[in-house]
Amino acid sequence: MVLKIYAYVLRQYYPNQTVLSVKGRDCGITRNPFNGGKETLRIHIDGIIATHRDTELEAFKGDVFDFAQYHFRITDEEELFQKINKELHLNLEVKEKDELEWLNEPDDTWYANCSFLKHLFAMCFLRKPCDYIKYLH
Can you give the pLDDT at residue 107? Predict the structure, then answer.
């Protein structure tokens, strides 16, 4: 899927052209719309994420989301994910989680109807020694 994001962005600048050619884990060199359209953009798959770098511009490197940020001009990560979801028609549902939702759920707290320590605490307040067995009865 990460290559689809690169391909989508590149197709916005170079429609009706082959924008990526994948060979193993490398996409070779393609045109960089952020460097005057020169063929200086190298895209490589590193594990589960694709990364890019420009052979001329030393500072132009990053992952697929950095590349999408250049194109969409969005710096907020959440907005960027939503924009990618919308533009690529991924139909990924993003649910807002209410942190206080648990307050509306039924109370399942377990309450004891008796105390196992009732007599032990009572013994703490005795003023004179007594037989414990007699005290429990």
Answer: 80
